[in-house]
Amino acid sequence: MYEIPNITNAEWEVMKIIWVNSEISSINIIQELKGKSEWKPATIKTLINRLLTKNAIGFNKIGYEYLYFPLVSEDECIKLESQSFIKRVFNGSIKSMILSFAQSEEITETDIAELKNILEQSSKTKG
User: 80 and 65 in one domain?
Assistant: First the structure.
């Protein structure tokens, strides 16, 4: 079975760009990150190489240019990161996580209504 690679926070920023742009050159990745980070081009190229090594991305070589594309979906990575977060922070308890967010002052009535709807839909598909 294929294992989804563990992607660092810095690599995640590069992946966001690659997920949006199915084939993109390192020059364009650098341009996209220009306003979002203070990384030098060499740092971004190192992150790209790490993602290649982890088999998170692949490339097509066209002439002298390498065009990078994702080998893992954003949804798969989000699911893995979510599970890791819940295990790390809430000892694997989704209930504890939801309680923590529900007790937060930042959650709105609209958020609560949407969560209730999602949970109801989820229980219907599992029931």
Answer: no
Average pLDDT by stretches of 10, the chain with 127 residues: 80 96 94 91 96 96 95 91 89 86 81 87 78
Cα dist from 100 to 89, 96, 107, 108, 123, whole Å: 11, 6, 10, 14, 21
The number of distinct structural domains making up the chain is 2
For the chain, the straight-line distance linking the first and the last C-alpha, in angstroms and rounded, comes to 28
Domain that holds residue 60: 9-70
Q: How far apart are CA 4 and CA 120, in angstroms?
A: 29
How many Cβ atoms sit within 10 Å of the Cβ of residue 81? 14
Instruction: Return the CA Rg of the chain.
Output: 19
Q: Rounded CA gap, 87 and 1, in Å?
A: 22
Q: CA 105, CA 72: separation in Å to the nearest integer?
A: 35
pTM of the model: 0.78
Rounded Cα distance between 27 and 33, Å, is 10
